[in-house]
Specification:
alpha+beta; Gyrase A, domain 2; Elongation Factor Tu (Ef-tu), domain 3; about 350 residues
Length: about 350
């Protein structure tokens, strides 16, 4: 029987989620979180979707529909972009890489890409494009943390610059190393055919161990994301927010031509009308985690909503992210969670959140 990625994860000590099959942790989630913050980790990010795109008009289509300037994107380079609605709201953030003869690779948030494909098709007229979902046929691993570069060097796969990519091979399989980790442009991702997954995973685990890191599961990954204030699809990145409110300024070009929703986004920037932003929150110890979407109040008035919440491994107090009105963004502001008369108070803290905040 051919070994699978699941086998490799289990052999590495993973505890898997009974519903999704994803690795929750590798025995010591608190250690995994510490490694992500001080050294480096490798995480299975195969939950991200991957679309392979070809056709002479695909870049032009993405240029017309997204916030990022993709005009003239060259082989080996990539850029973030945000598909927006006519009202300038977030449809989805995409990380777009030009892989040369292999075409374009579009990486998006967890879940099926049906909504993205539907959005692109809605605005496709005479353009010659083809998009194929390769998520089930590929593996996607992320290496991130302060010593991620050292870990990647140990694998000898090649190290691309930020938002760039290099082609490499492992165990007879071709793969692509990307200069982003699926959430930010500060780490790396490795995308390979599914058959290379098990041996590639083991090689990356050895690489991060060389740099003082370890394999990490979803508990550490989500905690790291919230502590760093990194927005994610389905949480901060929803159609309830525009790209500037959700902290995606790097994915927005203010000098490119028109795109769907461009007038709204440009006006918000030009006239300083961005009225909300992402904040970090610290909740009292042992508080039950509020659900995403829970309203937040300040002095009796609704000021925003909680978007992510987690109790980091080894911590007693939950931390959260929220999108709130700018007047309550200042650290130290106290927000009531859930209702005007609620008893749970969340304190606004600086991002990234540390143990002392």
């Amino acid at each position: 029987m051919t070994p699978t990625l699941r086998d490799a994860l289990l052999q590495g000590g993973a505890t898997l989620d009974g519903t999704t099959g994803r690795a929750l942790h590798f025995g010591e989630p608190a250690r995994e979180l510490a490694a992500a913050r001080t050294a480096c980790v490798v995480v299975d990010r195969s939950d991200l979707f991957r679309l392979a795109g070809t056709g002479p008009d695909l870049l032009d289509l993405l240029q017309r529909l997204g916030t990022g300037d993709l005009q003239g994107l060259e082989r080996g380079h990539g850029r973030p972009t945000v598909l927006t609605s006519p009202k300038g709201r977030i449809v989805h953030r995409l990380l777009v890489h030009h892989l040369g003869e292999a075409g374009l690779l579009l990486v998006g948030g967890p879940g099926a890409p049906d909504r993205v494909l539907e959005h692109l098709r809605r605005y496709t007229f005479a353009e010659r494009t083809e998009l194929v979902d390769r998520s089930a046929e590929t593996c996607h691993f992320a290496v991130f943390g302060p010593r991620a570069s050292e870990a990647l060097d140990a694998t000898e796969l090649g190290r691309p610059g930020r938002w760039s990519s290099v082609h490499a091979s492992h165990d007879g399989h071709g793969l692509h190393v990307l200069g982003e980790d699926g959430l930010t442009g500060d780490g790396f991702a490795i995308v390979s055919e599914i058959g290379a997954g098990p041996s590639l995973w083991r090689a990356l685990v050895i690489g991060v161990a060389h740099a003082g890191g370890c394999a990490a599961g979803d508990l550490a990954l989500e905690s790291w994301r919230v502590l760093c204030g990194v927005p994610a699809a389905g949480h901060e990145l929803t159609e309830d927010a525009n790209p500037l409110e959700a902290g995606l300024g790097e994915a927005v070009s203010f000098s490119k031509g028109c795109y769907v929703g461009q007038e709204v986004v440009a006006r918000l920037n030009t006239y300083d009308k961005v009225s909300r932003g992402i904040v970090g929150l610290r909740l009292p110890p042992f508080t039950l985690l509020p659900a995403p979407g829970t309203p937040l109040y300040f002095e009796g008035h609704a000021v925003g909503r909680l978007t992510s919440a987690v109790t980091p491994p080894g911590w007693s107090a939950p931390v959260a992210l929220a999108i709130v009105k700018r007047r309550v963004i200042e650290p130290g502001a106290e927000l009531i969670v859930g209702s005007r008369a609620g008893s749970v108070v969340a304190r606004v803290v600086p991002l990234p959140i540390d143990d002392r905040s």
